[in-house]
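haha ok so turns out i had the wrong file open the whole time. this is the CORRECT one, sorry everyone. sequence first:
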Amino acid sequence: MKKALLTLALAMMALAAGAQAQENTFKWVVGGTGSFSHDYANIDGNANSESTLIHIEPFVGYQLSDRWRVGLTFGYDFGNVKKTVGGATVSVGNLSTYNVGPYVHFDIVKYKRWILWAEAEAFYIWSPKSVPMEGDPLTGGMVPVLPATGSPMTLKVQGVQFTVKPGITYVLDKHVNIDLNLNLLGWYYANSRLEVIDGGATGIAAGTEMTSGHNGLVLDLLKSSPSDYWEKVAIGITFKF
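then structure:
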């Protein structure tokens, strides 16, 4: 799968090089997006739950034409879930993942300084060591999260993910854009392989392999708290040269 993604990236770069040879208006584009959320809950004064999510995704691209762009994106995600029961705080979910892959960007509608666009991305995702989290996109919630009283299981994660999502851009000037990636709307496909490093309290043997796959449309507009939107809406900036 890594070879397939590399081949796709090289093909896109070759297309970009061809476009550059044909017209002198070819432009570089660099930038990045990021999001952050922190949630806290207290249950009857006895049990506390606390979660933190951080997403950083820089990218570089070639502007093929006024509406089309291709390039590579690199990402880092960190997530942590803590639970406190009877005065004892335990981290029950901890995930640091990295990703890299090509993307294609198309500007659908332009109105004055506003642009509505769509983007297709293909990622190779890996995590050298992680504790599974509830609702983690790589596992689809299939891996159990242990209660605060149990020792957590640790995993090695590898996977691929394809996404198509919309976004909105505000053009500050001819060199700088402000972007909103709307990850709460779109289509996705993910497939991952999980290898158990330490089974913890589950009793699952080290070296056990599990697979997880899911795909579908995302329409996630109704949320329980304002901070949930920061998990799905990433703010970014694009520099054009």
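The CA atoms of residues 37 and 228 lie 7 Å apart.
again sry for the mixup
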